[in-house]
Design brief:
By secondary structure, this protein is an alpha/beta fold. It has one domain: Rossmann fold (3-Layer(aba) Sandwich). It is 40% helix and 19% strand. α5 links the parallel β6 and β7. The protein is globular. It binds flavin mononucleotide (FMN). The site of flavin mononucleotide has 18 residues, from α1, β4 and β6.
Length: 187
């Protein structure tokens, strides 16, 4: 295990703010574990942002699910990363993913599969989530309500001051902590 502080980048896009809010909850969990979280809006990439991703120990990819797949802004970022793919610049970094939809399923899994394949093309090592919540674990009634393990799934709430439910927010913090711990272990 490395003693250095690990950096976990959260590369996301967000149309109405829900995915950004989810990323902020994940970042809280990352920092609670003693790692550094950096949010990168992939719809406004600068040279500094690409450098941030290249320097990160782990990258979490986040996109809202639009029409059963990652929103177009995220797909543009995916396509723009082809030079990085060619040089395998992100190879052997840890990766994970998160998505928000209006519906508890909402075909978010399709987006997470897309993000997983994207990470695989980059030679990255995927870390899923491990929370068993409702309805199996009565002690975790609001955790992992989407029943998603490939990555983090959240369901948007209409209260714009909240955007993400308290259960999904806590699931996100746990996911961030898990990713930070994995990055520290992987070194
Ligand atoms: C064009 C469009 C397509 C959408 N398609 C889906 C979908 O397939 N499944 C779903 O559950 N929600 C869908 N939604 C809802 C969004 O996923 C949801 O509002 C989410 O919170 C948006 O995240 P954002 O605020 O980060 O953009 C769609 C929204 C838009 C605008």
């Amino acid at each position: 295990m490395s003693g250095a502080v690990q950096t976990v980048a959260l590369a996301y896009c967000s149309g109405a703010g829900h995915t950004r809010r989810l990323a902020e909850h994940i970042a809280t969990g990352v920092e609670a574990a003693g790692a550094r979280a950096v949010l990168v809006d992939v719809t406004a990439m600068t040279a500094a942002d690409w450098a941030t991703l290249a320097a990160a120990h782990a990258i979490l990819f986040g996109a809202p699910t639009y029409m059963g797949s990652a929103a177009a802004g995220f797909k543009t970022f995916m396509d723009a990363s082809s030079d990085i793919w060619a040089g395998q610049i992100w190879a052997n970094k840890l990766a994970g993913g998160f998505s928000v939809g209006t519906f508890p399923s909402g075909d978010k899994l399709s987006t997470l599969v897309q993000l997983t394949v994207f990470a695989a093309q980059h030679g990255m090592l995927w870390v899923g989530q491990q929370e068993i919540g409702a309805p199996v674990d009565a002690g975790k009634p609001d955790i992992n309500q989407s029943g998603t393990w490939l990555g983090l799934g959240a369901t948007s709430v209409r209260d714009k001051s909240l955007m993400i439910s308290s259960g999904d927010a806590e699931t996100a913090r746990r996911f961030g902590t898990r990713m930070a711990a994995a990055a520290q272990r992987w070194g």
